[in-house]
Amino acid sequence: MPPEISKTTPTAVITIERHILMEQERFPDSSGALTSLLYDIALAGKLIASRTQRAGLADILGSAGHENVQGEEVQKLDVYAQRTIYQLNDHTGRLCCMESEESKDIIPIPEQYPTGDYVLVFDPLDGSTNIDFNVAVGTIFAIFRRRSKGGTGGMEGVLKSGRQIVAGG
After folding, report:
1. Distance, CA of 108 to CA of 151 (rounded, Å)
2. Cα angle vertex 104, ends 102, 105, to 5°?
């Protein structure tokens, strides 16, 4: 017999997935592409967090041996986080391009995959140099709508005002 639930106990646990679905219900004409994109970003965050928690055991702490476009030393976990986000989103047909703090140029969607209506801009592991000191790190992202249907997104698809963000975290 299940334990009795008090009137003050919520009946539903609000997970990130449940929250995203509840928000999608507010837009009956939505295609679900943004919902799926947010799921993929949430999954990437979970994978990155799991690897970050085990970094000392998995021998992925420390420098990767090169600098990013800002002149910062790239950490091994930066490389893992970048690859994880890219591989979860390059083939889905939801993005026209991506842009990352770790990349000098726009990250195009490979030609063999369809492109979509969104642009993903992200820092795969903000604060990665803090990991050696047990300080907080995280993934930062923003999603914008593609400006035009033609092309692959390019710089004009990425350079937008913050007021045009569709979702971010």
Report:
1. 10
2. 115
Give the Cα separation of 75 and 126 in Å (integer).
11
Supply the pLDDT for residue 107: 93
Find all residues with CB under 8 Å of 154, minimum gap 6, and list them.
97, 106
Q: How many CB atoms lie within 10 A of CB 8?
A: 5
Question: What mean pLDDT do residues 100-105 have?
Answer: 86
pLDDT tens digits for 77-99? 888 899 999 999 999 999 999 99
Write the DSSP symbol of residue 79.
Answer: H
**For residues 161 and 81, what is the distance between their CA atoms, to the nearest angstrom?**
26
The dihedral built from the CA positions of residue 39, 150, 30 and 93, taken in this order, carries a sign that is negative
First-residue to last-residue Cα distance in the chain: 40
pLDDT at 155 over 80: no
Strands (E), the chain: 63-67, 73-75, 95-100, 107-108, 118-126, 138-145, 165-168
Nearest to 42 by CA among 138, 113, 136, 159: 138
- For the segment 21-62, what is each residue's pLDDT rounded down to a tens digit? 888 889 888 888 999 999 999 999 999 888 887 665 555 666
d(CA 86, CA 91): 9
